[in-house]
Amino acid sequence: MICLVSISCDDLINVEPRNQIAPDAALADAASYEALVISIYDRLQTFTYWGRDMSLLGETLADNAFVVTSQASGRYTGTIRNTRNSHFNIWTTAYAAINECNTVIATIDDIDDPDQAKKDQLKGEALFLRALVYFDLARIYGYEPTKVPTTGPGAGWDKSVILRTEPVREAADAALQTRATQTEVYGQIEQDLINAGRLLPKDNEMTVFRANKGAAYALLGKIYLYWEKWDKAVVNFDSALNNTSASLMQAGDYATGFKSIPNDESFFEINFIQSVEVAGVEGVNNSAFSYTQPTGTNPLKLSTYGGMTPSAELLALYEPNDDRKGIFYVSASSTSNGVTYTWSNKYAGAGGVYTDNIKVIRLADVLLMKAEALAMLGDYSGAADLVTELRTQRNATAPVPQDASIIDFIAQERRRELFFEGSHRWFDLKRRGQPITKAAATAVGTIAYDDYRLLAPIPNAEVILNPEGLPQNPNY
Amino acid sequence: MKRILLCLTAVAMLITGELLAQERTISGKVTSSEDGSPLPGVNVVIKGTTSGTVTDIDGNYRVSTTQGDGTLVFTFIGLQTLEVEMGSRSTIDVQMSSDIRQLNEVVVTGYGERERNSFTGAFSNVGAEAIQNKPFATVEQALQGNVAGLQLAASSGTPGAVQNIRIRGVSSLTASNEPLFVIDGVPVISGSNNRDVINETGTADLGVLASINNNDIESITVLKDASATALYGARGSNGVIIITTKRGQAGTPTLSFSAQTGFVSRAVKGPKMLNSAQWQELQYESLINAGYAADLDEAAALVADPSNGLPQWNGQTNTDWRDVVANDDAMTHNYDLSMRGGSDKSNYYASLGYFKQDGINIGSNMERITGKLNYNNQLSKKLNFNTSLTGSYLLQNGQLEGSAYYGNPDAAYLFMLPIDRAYNDDGTPNIDNLSTSNFNPVFIAQNDINRRIQSRILNNTSLSYEILPKLKYTTMIGVDYVVTEELYYRNREHGDGVPTQGRSDSYYNRNFNWDWKNMLDYSWKVNESNKFDFKFVYESQKNRYFTMGAGGYGFAANGLVYPETAGTPDNVSSYTTDWSINSIMALVNYTYKGNIFLDATVRREGNSRFAEGNRWGTFYSFGASWVFSDEAFMESTKNWLTSSKIRASYGVTGNAGIPLNAFQPLLDYTGSYNGRPGIYPSQYGNPDLSWESSATWNIGLDVELLERITGTVEYFNRRNYDLLLEVPLSYTTGFENQYQNIGEMVNKGWEVTLNADVLKAAEFKWNIGVNFTSLKNEVTDLPKDANGNEIGPSGTTYKVSTGQPAFAWYMPTWAGVDSDTGSPLWFVQGKSGELTSNWRQAGYSFQGTPTPTFFGGLTNRFDYKGAYLSASIYYSTGNEVYDTWAGYTQSDGRYAFNGVANAYARQYDRWQKPGDISENPKNVFGNPSLSANASTRRLYDGTYLRLRDITVGYNLPSAWVSKIGFKSLDVYVRGNNLYTWIKDSKLEFDPEVDADGFIDLNAPALRTLAIGLRGSF
Q: Closest by alpha carbon to B150, among B158, B138, B162, B140?
């Protein structure tokens, strides 16, 4: 009797979950792998990663922004003053994405699906995304290979992040590892992007909302720029420009350009669907819109926690007729008791309330990076031509230098063009080994390049778990 | 000749049958054996027939019978059943004696009944008197103070909110700590059936048990140790609460009714906040202390300058927001009608109940309608049929609570400033010009909706068949079907709905549970001295939960509140979770000479929550009891020690209250990007995951003295091991942690229960009941990380650590205020020695436990003629409670004057000049001293004593009520939570807080004062 009972018992108590599926059952064809790739993009959308912080947080760490404390409800009030531990925190999200990339890259070739083009595309996307995430990890938690400080707490600190390229499927895969060096991580990123560029289709066959060939070359060029391999950077920026349908926003279009979806210049843009990504209180609590628009008095009259404004130093960089100035507006907020501030309308709710797409790579950035690489190779006139090409479409008429001073001019042009996007300013200063002269209003002063705060702290729990292999960054 | 006549009569009767049978009448009077007083309401039935009656007010009865002889059966609850041979008598007077020999009571286990003497486990029983007509929205609230070893803490005072119950302490760190509920033998859905409140709705959980009508309950039995709970396997490791509902009784139908109505107010007033004048005085002072102003004039000018954006008092408004949020007209109502009756072959109980209770905050209330039918039929000599059906409809209007939501009225009253008006001149709520971000709670209560409607059908049906005289088969099926509909609407004009032009979310949650038991009972009497009872059980249970939700924003007009009419739907969700259990069980009881008992239970259980190889667990228990008062050597003490019994039990059970499918690596499907669905690995899994286990010892002594005093003393020791803890993985794997069976904890303590009939005179009676529990909890093992540090749940105020009670408070020790500088002080290390005014340098120490270590209840009842007075108190001590939001409300100027929060009135006692001895440090605008950061300044002694219930009533004399056709009539006045004594004078909140010890922004506990009437005819 007991035997009989036991058989029926096991049937009854074998309950498979209905909302989740065990991996073996689920990942069987290209369609299911596509869903896994989709999840990687979904992780990029996390607000503490590309959903917001990768655009804005670095701006507050550097000199393009000032945060009005009374308006911000605690948002970026620590990073604007570069207080200890106020920094990027992408570790957990990044590695969750990487594990998914690894799963796709390691196993997609094994599935029995005749659609080879689809498999190549998905693998290419996973390679691109793994490169992007490792690049972000490397530049947030470590120094650039050629810019390890020789003084200060980080002198000689060549540690980058943990480099995992195999999926974690069982206990043995989860063994603790040691931080790789910058060169090892950059080498892996380089390899992934070369492969991604080979596998990915062009943006006109895909969409700029997904990884594509042009974006892969542009990112590879950017890696070389950070690595100071100028000639390789130029070659890849050229490949990027040859493999894209992006076009410059025309003169007079800068402010409205940020309201079109996708942006004309985008190589790779993360698409946010209002009903999915900023539903409920997510918008007001977390969106870039909420962080950068005055509460109540913004163009959409929405409540916000907006305290992040362009710094006076940034505003002073524009000549009077520059189109890009038109994206700023002066307004009080409904809680500022009549006190006015200058606000940026770059995040204008183009995709609905609190909803804006995030531009990860766009044409102006690529042009300016290529110009910088040319200038570093001594081709100042080639560089100046590119910068002028951009500036013409922005109605900026001041002459562009034709000598070595163009390198600093490009840095300023990047501020004017790319402020509040991609945390470019923070990473530009860091990769060039330059100190940060904070906005005067922050009263922070200057942060030297060898200051420990150039690197983000690694989550403490992670260090506790693996103190040998994963030492904390200096001084944290 | 006479003989011949009799014979003829007998022959005639045989011929003519019953119709013409000679009818005769038997009458008599039933009195109490103790004082000779008449006993009304006693059932009198002729055995084996349906004819019977009930004694009247004077104890008189009259039955008609055609039978020549037979037996009269007299029954009354609380009295020993009496059987009397009728013979040929026409008058039979009897005396009935009370059944106070509790040791012979029956224990309901849910798997049949056991005689108390033979029961070796630990249990407590609560009778109907402690439950019925109590103004508690959920039945388990009646258990507080009435059951040794059971702690109950309301998660919220919103009527119908889930109650936290801990039986003999905390048994798990991450898995469930809630006991299993069984109604009439069927494990039922408990806890709540609504959506995950923390993440989605921000309202208190609605208890599924709130669907039960208190007045349908006959008794509640709480099983506490392994001997009792091994019966229930992994479901029972946190104790089992068995509810038995009322059944029919043989005799003429009795119709009972009750009506109760009363007022509801706050049990504890809550903290007093600064009034406007105090607030302004402190605002000016704080600006001066911060160096922003040199004197009061400058401070006043600063505040008056609008560019500074500081809230400013107009010199007139003085709003007490606590009064504003209080519902002054809060009421409680309870009406019931029930009927019970039957014969010795079949009986029934039917009832209809209505309950309504307002919460003390505006806008919150609960309403319940219940219907019940219990029916029992002895279909044949061998076949018995029993069924019970309960239906209920419950509507609850709740509020935002649990956190400092801007729309939470309990946050509003702490955070909103007295300088802001609650109402405009025209009487409408003021929603403009509010200094803080909070929303006007009056407007929110009038315009937002937090509504739940819960419908429940509960049925259990059993059939038992006597295969052989000693062999009985029983099959029992129980189904429990609960549907909870929810609607949350945020209005367009003021509050959370403004940014989106209104927002609405609606959820539908269905929970279906079935449980099927098949039982075989066999009784084997070896000889006079040796007897065995065997029971075999096969039981399956399955639970299926389904939920769906929809929501949207953007409403075109006021009055549209459902997602259907939202301009932009943006929330669709639906999921289902199932679990199931399968088990076989064997029980054996051995009785030696009627006073030594041994029993053993083995249960083998499979549970879908675990991986295939770990699904089955074996649980067992042994127990023994010895009624040594029946032994010859106790003969000399028998005259005063009327009964005594010692018992012991040991058992091992599991706890399966862990997340579903925690063992599997899983992919989740909730992600999406660019309009396409995503899959992501959501769980790493652990195929080795198994039950949490507990091994429990229990030793008990039951005594009865002079047939007046009964007492029970128990010692228990429960070791919970293989506790599930989330062991961190390196994030670089893509996962944060993994559940493992690791960790151990011990609960041990004493329970004492005493009940004494101090006076038993005919006219004056006095009964005292007292119980208390002493409980010690200690974590004994935890996993360690690479540095040898323990890994356990921890937060900014607590830490799970070996050698400490679970979730022990862990924070810096407050050392008061520096009388020279007005700075806050903490100890650098421990609780004495060097001081620091820098919070970051303060050392962390263990600061006690959130779980009470000593608690209990005391009940007194006096009866004089028909009048009675009963009072119960509940007391609890040994724990500390933490003021979660004092960081804002006791911030010494950090938040009080820039429009974030108001401050406690106690903040007025602050340091002003060197030499001042004050409770609070120097009051500084934007105070950077971190004086209100986590420390024992915010931790209070949780000791309290509460007058849980006091009732004064009068049973109208039967001579009066019989004239108007009643059997009985009782009027009373009842007060609940009328008085609360709190030891710590600084603790202004209600000390009865959630089991985790955090004082949160929840609806407060209720005080009720009601009048009631009940009767039968």
A: B140
